[in-house]
Amino acid sequence: MTDPCDLTISEASQGIEDGVFSPVQLMESCLDRINQLETRLKAWVLVLREQAIECAEQATREIELCGKKGPLHGIPIGIKDIYYTKGIRTTACSKIHTDFIPEYDSTAVAKLKKAGAIILGKTVTTEFAAGDPPVTVNPWNAAHTPGGSSSGSAVAVASGMCTGAMGSQTGGSILRPASYNGIVGLKPTFGRVSVYGVIPVAWSLDTIGPLVNSVRDAAIILQATAGYDENDPGSARVGVPNYLHEIGHLDRPPRIGVVKDFFMENADLAVRTHTEEVIHRLSLAGAEVKRVSLPVSFAKSMAIQWVVMNVECAAYHEEQFRTRADDYSEQLRKRIELGFLTPAITYIQAQRFRRVFRRDLDFLTRQWDVLITPSTPTAAPKDLSTTGDPMFQSPWTLAGLPAITIPSGIDDSSNMPLGIQLVASSFAENRLLAVAHWCEAVLDSRLRPPI
Amino acid sequence: MYIRKLGEQEILEENIRRAEVIFSYDRCLILQDIMKQDAKFIAQLHEGFPPMKEFPTLTWQNHP
């Protein structure tokens, strides 16, 4: 019998509803898994054991009395340690924030709690969600990076230490660790989910989203967290569809645009071969599949991302950095220093080029249900000094478009997971999730690390 | 030209000079490699200009 902690959110929720186990038993299952693995995997900054059990007991009572609030009621969720959690240390895994205790929850955490989710603990992030390698260990193979910056969230979910977790993406920090660990990661449209109370990397790039074990679970968390927030200046006044209803109602096979330019050119042979096989399987299953070309503006996208992130990151850290530069990890420190050196006019021109790029990608993505690419250029690199290369995720983050990675197989040479990335147009998460759900069913690739 | 367009090497040299003013000399040595990458990216952005009508994409204008 499957341990409760190895179930998806949807399955666990059904198990609670059917009385197979209680929220307390589910929580204990997660805590047992943490006891077994955490010393080795180092996914957590802080595990809220007593508080989580108390919340699980309360959820049990609530469900017995009034029924479930929804699919997240009684479900243990990990929170990346850049999200404010009221009364609970939020460190960003940095010496700068070692003792910081927020006085309020981030909007996303508040919404998850309102939906009945239980915050199990704070997961490891790379320092300030930037590029320095984390302490977290990849459960598939300890010699390979777990990716980042949402390292702890990815590993915790992949290894069954929690049923879902929250991450953030400024370049590739949700989808890349999700793919490297064989799970699902969703980066919504910029502004879809409030980032209020989330320590920023770069304000005009940051997006938050779930790392989970299924597309349905991604829809469940998105449903709970999406929506306008007046506290977040980037929050979009766009209505929230019923993602869970639409996920199972794709009325025809999807139309998928295959982006070979840049992505296949920069993928290694194993990823290229695997992705072609996946596309072929999707085509055999009925998907309309056709190659698409990237716009000319794509050529500048890496440069734009680089400049925007460096400058905005430097602006956020300027006050602390002037006196505490030595307390910053090296890669983050260098990016901040570059931000200080970048002329304002270069930043503004980058943001103007970015508008052209956004418009071009918006036009491209509206012609297809989704675009498809490999999630990453290679499987998780055998290199613990890196979190991997965000080049396959960064363009979509830059354009603010929603993207999802779903596990699609194993790289035979490294025995590490591989994923495919689907991208949709702005605020088309309903379509993205519906197509991803369809692809997930075709590929049938639920992966579990050998733990 | 009144304002010269700088190539990648010139951008790097300009940034090294500015870094030496802001940071320590030792720090500039550490930054050399990443500054080369930075100069490469900035040189790409100096190729051409965005259309004159384009506003920058800033947080509150990020939506189409």
Structure, explained:
The complex is a heterodimer of chains A (about 450) and B (about 60). Chain A has a single domain (about 5-255, about 370-445), classed as Amidase signature (AS) domain (Amidase signature (AS) enzymes, Alpha-Beta Complex), CATH 3.90.1300.10. In chain A, strands 1-3-2-4-6-5-10-11-9-7-8 form an 11-stranded mixed sheet, with helices on both faces. Chain A is an alpha/beta fold. Chain A is about 40% helix and about 15% strand. Chain A has 15 helices and 11 strands. In chain A, helix 7 packs antiparallel against helix 15 and helix 11 (about 300-325) packs across helix 13. The longest helix of chain A is centred in the last third of the chain and has 24 residues, at about 300-325. Chain B is an all-alpha fold and about 60 residues long. Chain B has one domain. Chain B contains 2 helices and no strands. Chain B has helices spanning about 10-20, 25-45. In chain B, helix 1 (about 10-20) packs antiparallel against helix 2 (about 25-45). Classes of the chains: A alpha/beta (about 450), B mainly alpha (about 60). At the A-B interface, helix 11, helix 12 and helix 13 of A face helix 1 and helix 2 of B.
